Every structure is written in structure tokens, then in C-alpha cells.
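Re-running Glycosyltransferase subfamily 4-like N-terminal domain-containing protein to confirm reproducibility after the cluster update. Everything else is unchanged from the original entry.
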Amino acid sequence: MENTEMTLRVGITAQTLNVQHLRGTGRYVQELLRNTTASDDVKWTAYAQDASKPFRVPSPLLGNTDVFNFPGDRFQLWEQVGLPQRLKRSGVALLHCAENTVPVWQPVPTIVTIHDTVLWEEERARLDHFYLHKVQALAYSRCAAVITISESSKRDIAARWPVLADRLTVIPHGIADEFFDDRRATIPAVLQQALGTSPYLLFMGGPQPRKRFGWALQLLAQCGRADLHLVGCGFGAGTTSIDQIPPALRHRVHFAPFVEDSELVALYRGAQAAVYPTLYEGFGFPAVESQAAGTPILFSPVSSLVDLIGPLAWPVDAEDLSAWIAALKEVLTLPAQARSELAARSIEWARQFSWRKSVERHFDVYRDVLARSRQ
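Result of re-run:
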């Protein structure tokens, strides 16, 4: 029987699980739910909006789901009015807004995770700009605590909203357990058919300009390996046209479908190297995931990535293409014994990024907020 005096009832926004395919923030929310155990005495209520789409909460979920529609999606009324109304009669003790934004009306103590400040640095339509820059500034000022995912993001958040500086807690992400599983999955069949036995590089990031897919294409073109292919991850349908790829490279460039965690691990493990030429990240999953899979990765020590340089990382100046090419050639000619030794060290290094540890630290924040609210 549930001990209602000890059980912490937490509401969590989970719109990023109410989708066809998970992305980074959705993975974060899913792992918080998935890594909760019965001994934690935490019961979740996961909130989402669209019953016509899958709701990718873990099964079984320690708690329940509440998927409800509310008029005025264009004006963010689900978040600003519908969700607070729901909270008043839900019985939850506090709300964790895990997806960057938060309601101004907060009928229970509210915690927000601001992953990074990218949303505020991009051009927006007038209404969206007002919502992010004015409404959210007010909403954040009312939050009991703010969680972010790296020291880099903490600095950016404190600079943008100084009032939040003394409420910020850094809790790094973990990576999926599948990266430490000895069982060997296979890459998706469509990629296996396209690649055959050809060696490949793995590009992580998708089509956003700051991820620099074009940079990865230049590396492929200039690395001196005509047999090498490139697999791009994170591209939805229609986000990259074949016309954007130089004709001479088109037969060597392939796009991965959305993959399960086990298939993603197989993609990393099968790659000669991963390339991650992003210019900014709040955390940077690929920098850890590739090293956890025992695969070298090239990236620039920018923003949060400066803290993710492990044994199999080749940090390279962001704007020095010749240095990137030289680093890639070095990785591609790495002796098998040296690569194996680095991989063993790298896998151990990556174990520090544990979702379970991350979840425990979240619970510490929850209980601190609840204790302060009771006082």
C-alpha cells in the first residue's frame, strides 16, 4: 500500500514525449521517469496535450498520465491556463516544467529545467518573441528552483536572467544504459543495405545551421578516403535536400531513420569516427555517447563541450578546417591496439554520466523546494 505521507507526488510536463519520434528533451523527460524506482517514494503525473499522438512514457510508469486538450494552443493557453487549472485539483505537491517553459500562474511550487538559451537567441515571430522574452521572464521569476544541464548553460542563464542566479542547480544528463550493454544490436536494415561493407563516419546533429552538416561534408570530401561514407543522424523527412550535397558525394552520404537506443549504439560502435562540428550545445549527448561506445569523436571545445573531453575525444578549433582534416586523418590511421586501449578508458570515463545519479539529484531539488515551501 502507498504511504501517502511519505510519497512525493510530482507533476511533470511531458509534451516532448507526446510525439511520433523522441528528440533530446524528450529523452531527458523519459529518463527521469524511467529511472525512478519504487523505493524513491515518488509518484509522477505526466502531463501532455494531444491524445491523437503516442505518449511515450515508460511502461510501467510509477504514477499516472493526464493527456488533455485545452483551447488556444496558438497562444500557449494549455501551458498558461489549462495546466494550472489541472494542478489545483490534481493532488500533486509540486510541478517540474522539464521542457524550458513554465506557466506564470503557479498553484503549486514550481521547478523549471532550462536546457540552454538557444531559444532566446533565435529570430522569432512577434508573438513568440513576446512569449519567450516577456512572459517567460515573469514566470521564471516566480519559480522556486531552476535546473540546468551544464556549467556553460548556467552562465548563460544567469547572464540573461540575473534574478535566477541564486536558484540555479547544475545536474548533467546521463546516457542510456544501452551504451554499457554487452549485447550487440545491428544498425537499421536500410543503412546496412546502403553501406554494405563500406566504412563510415557518423554525423550527429541534424539540419540546424549551428550543427554544421556542411562542415561534415567538407571533411568527407577532403579526408583522402574515397571509400569512406557519411551517415547523418537527426534529420527529419524533408529537412535536407539531396541538392545540398555535392554531386560527387551523393552516393557516399546516407541519412539514418529515427532509431531505437540499441540501434543508435550499433551505429556509434560501427563508425570509424563520429564528427560533431556544432557551435553551441547546452549539454552535447554525442560527445559522451560516442566515447561510451568506444568510438573516437571530433568536436570543438565550445560551450558545454569543454567539459566533455574524454579519452576518445579529439578537440579541434571550430573554424580551422585544416585542423579538422588533420585530426580526422589521425583518427582514421589510429593503430588498432591504441584505439582499443583508449576505448577501454573512454567507456569507464563515460560511466560518470549516469541517469540514475541525475534522477537522484533531481529528487534532492524537489525535496528541498518542498521543505522550503512548507516553512
